Amino acid sequence: MSLPPLASGPQGPAALRPLLDTVLHALREGARSRGGPLPAGGPQAVAARVRDAVGDVLPQEGDPDALRALVHALAEGSADPADPLCAAHLHCPPLAVATAADLAACVLNPSLDSWDQAPAASELEALVTRALATEAGAADALVTTGGTESNQLALLLARESHGSVRLVCGSNAHHSLTRAAWLLGLPEPVVVPAPRGILDPAALATALAGLTGPLLVAATAGTTDAGLIDPLPEIADLSAHHGARLHIDAAYGGGLLFSDHHRARLTGLDRAHTITLDLHKLGWQPVAAGLLAVHDPHDLHALRHRADYLNADDDTEAGLPDLLGRSLRTTRRPDILKIAVTLKVLGRTGLGSLTDHVCALAQEFARLVRSHPAFELHDRPAISTVLFRPAAASDETVAAVRRTLLLDGRAVLGRARLDGRLWLKATLLNPHTRPGDLAALLNLVEGSTPR
Ligand SMILES: *Cc1c(COP(=O)(O)O)cnc(C)c1O
């Protein structure tokens, strides 16, 4: 029997090239058979096509055509964030250059739990995380799988530095924060009202005045539902006044840091003890590309951990970098490579203009909605999210319109409940979207709304 080729080593590139041709061809053909932003027919039709393509999951004899067949099936059945009408979530279309870099990460397979598995990747990670932390006004940053893990780590570091902290967050905060409090066995979080989607500083002041013991205030820079930015300087003042630790979840809004035009809207970010950033949102990275930035690097001592086979004391004393304390994970892929390549290939100007561009698209879409008599706009977009609804429709109709578009495979829109009503949500992250696409999206929604 001939052994399957490896991705790295001297034969790696030659073995990969024809396989990559197969993959790229299958991606193109799969997308062509889908023909829209997501597959038509709903979950049952999609599942049936996948089952057909897969057949026997573990056949007795292997099938070399499975690479083509499964990539084709995945592409045919995907919601493609590169399609302008796929705009539901903070689900970005990844940049080609970041994806190409990620291929190299797969090939070399460095693992960031010990220096002897990642000699160059560990240094690259140290350089890039420090640079990104500086960008956010912090001192260091850990690489995470995304905002959820970053938020969990933020709560863990707070607990380790203050004892059992109580989380105080807005009702607009990401669900992963209260879930992390549950996971870590922290006291029941205090959830402060967020009228119109923004944490209310007066309500926060009242809550803080009535609480004793160590507190962790969590603010949001770019809410998941509406892209709204909490009043960070006021929240930072209140937290400092009450001796509370401050975490800012900038999983979405952190991308504004790259833009000269929008950066000032994150004033106050640098006053947080910890900051969640997520470059698989406004950063155009393939998943995963999360970061947790920390103001005081000493906070990271809480994660120090020894395992003789990875970071023995004598190895560390002899100068081998100790990486295990940079994550709660052990084996860890070099997600930093694609990030580093993107930062350098695009530069601040390139990334900033992508951010500016999607923010401008949101303003343009909001203008279309506002000038259309059949629609109601929630508010001027703060980042690149637009909430809108067919005027005078019931919540049930709004929900049904979204599902109709999904099941027909014609558009992917999200939903958000705000001010007691259900809204359609367009999260615009695709810089290649054109004004004509936005008009087409609105027409589709209008055509799917029963009168
Ligand atoms: C997306 C998001 C998260 C969670 O990030 P994941 O990468 O999905 O884990 C956390 N907070 C906010 C504000 C988000 O928008």
Automatic annotation (TrEMBL):
<protein>
    <submittedName>
        <fullName>Pyridoxal phosphate-dependent decarboxylase family protein</fullName>
    </submittedName>
</protein>
<keyword id="KW-0210">Decarboxylase</keyword>
<dbReference type="Pfam" id="PF00282">
    <property type="entry name" value="Pyridoxal_deC"/>
</dbReference>
<dbReference type="InterPro" id="IPR015422">
    <property type="entry name" value="PyrdxlP-dep_Trfase_small"/>
</dbReference>
<keyword id="KW-0663">Pyridoxal phosphate</keyword>
<dbReference type="InterPro" id="IPR015424">
    <property type="entry name" value="PyrdxlP-dep_Trfase"/>
</dbReference>
<keyword id="KW-0456">Lyase</keyword>
<dbReference type="InterPro" id="IPR015421">
    <property type="entry name" value="PyrdxlP-dep_Trfase_major"/>
</dbReference>
<comment type="similarity">
    <text>Belongs to the group II decarboxylase family.</text>
</comment>
<dbReference type="InterPro" id="IPR002129">
    <property type="entry name" value="PyrdxlP-dep_de-COase"/>
</dbReference>
